[in-house]
Amino acid sequence: MKETRTKAKEKLAKMRKVKGLTQKEIASKVCMDDSTYSKRESGKLKIDIKQWEKLAEILECNISDIFEEDVNQSIIFNDNSTGYYCANNIFTIHEDLLEMQNKIHKKMLDELEATKKENVYLKRLVKELKNNKDS
Known about the structure:
α2 packs across α3 (about 35-40). The protein starts with a helix and ends with a helix. Strands 1-3-2 form a three-stranded mixed sheet. The protein is mainly alpha-helical and about 140 residues long. It has six helices and three strands, in the order αααααβββα. The longest helix has about 40 residues, at about 95-135.
């Protein structure tokens, strides 16, 4: 069981990095200081079931996803210099591409938020113009 937990903690670190999160960010989300979280992720301290559940929620996965062997995962990390390929129904993505995808996703979310704010401003402006026209 200890070997399974060690592999799970290694996988936890990989999944955190794929999500573009630091240990400090995860620690904050699980309400513990970053040094304690670091010790938990490295295996120096145990992670209880409630903490595993919270970590899975933060990483947007199931606990079983963390404990399963990589071979059963839909995303497997490798050194494939071409980036990604599909073989035996396993989709493999180079870690650098995942990092780039996460950055693009964040930028798109930021742009969406800015567009929403601009939309609110423009709606207010149109309403003011209509009110001025009716006056």
